[in-house]
Amino acid sequence: MTTDLLLTRSSALPLEIVCQRLIEVATSHKFGVLANHNLREKMESKGVSFARECRVIEVCNPQQAQVVLNQAIEISTALPCRISVYEEADRTILATIKPTMLLTMFHAPGAAATAQDVEDTLIRIMEETCRD
Q1: DSSP output for the chain
Q2: Quick one: which of 60, 65, 59 has its CA closest to 94?
Q3: pLDDT digits over 34-86, tens only?
Q4: Residue 54 in contact with residue 36, Cβ under 8 Å?
Q5: Which of 2, 5, 32, 91 yields a CA-CA distance of 20 to 30 A from 115?
Q6: What pLDDT is attached to residue 2?
């Protein structure tokens, strides 16, 4: 499913396997994995009960990041790209905000092509990750 703001894909694979595959696939597309947040564990460590499994995996291609940051340093507030992985109705869902939509918040028309390249690559990463 794709909306105006989000890109989503789903898989029948278990969440843990999807997370492992996502990291491997992102790396194969020259995106480094900067962090892997387990939201349930983080919230529970702060005394907040949260029953859902949800991971947020931060990925970045440094060369592409440099291009957009050179256009407008304030784009740093939207970096790195985050891909959420969670369970919904017996499916594992991957979701991310479209880089092209994030870019509209900043005055950086010279970064549009790079944002589109990043978005296209994120789509490929998510689709490859979800293959059964």
Answers
A1: -B-SSEEEEEESS-HHHHHHHHHHHHHHTT-EEEEEEEHHHHHHHTT----S-EEEEEEE-HHHHHHHHHH-GGGGGG-SEEEEEEEETTEEEEEEE-HHHHHTTSS-GGGHHHHHHHHHHHHHHHHHHH--
A2: 59
A3: 999 999 999 999 999 999 999 999 999 999 999 999 999 999 999 999 999 99
A4: no
A5: 91
A6: 52
pTM (2 decimals)? 0.93
The Cβ of residue 74 has, within 10 Å, a number of other Cβ atoms equal to 12
